[in-house]
Predict the 3D structure of the following.
Amino acid sequence: MNAKEFAAQLRTEIEAIKNQGVPAIDVENLITYLSNVEDSPSAEPSAAEIEHYKADLTAHIEATKHNYNTQLEMFKSVILAGQNAIRTIVGINGGASVAMLAFLGHMAAIRSPFIPVYAACLLPFAAGTLLGGLISGGTYLSQWLYAGGSKKVETAGFAVNILVILFGIGSFACFGLGAWWTYEAFLDTPPQGTAPLVKTVPVG
């Protein structure tokens, strides 16, 4: 097999690898180089030179595939971690909201005068749950923008991603605030049936 036949064969193999998802920039450079080798009138290389070049090219292709697979796995791990964070945010705030609603329902049944206090404690949990929903929608939007292709659209996707991260921090902060308010409300609520304090005035 001469040099031109070898270049044609390698170009076919590289094009097949490109169709499997390997990043295009390195592959395109290699295809262009091999095309130049095919059209070059230079002297035929020796068999040892061809084998050496083939080994170098194979190593380059394997390194490119390894880097691509590594980046793909890192991207998958980031997506999985984000999904777990969203589930945690919605779970803790949504669960706290349901618990507070049930507690408020019980207080309404006994006509407790402290309903407004605990109703205020519900607000941070509800806000955290809402932020969790916005995070889920914002994550989809950022990925859609990233897939747009153009630099401007990718920049918009990055901005949405930063906004989603801020929403996540805010959601956890809402849960902490709601838990603190609820704790303070429990401390300030007297036990049921406790008689109010009566100030006595000494006689005489």
Summary: The chain has two domains: 3-67, 76-188.
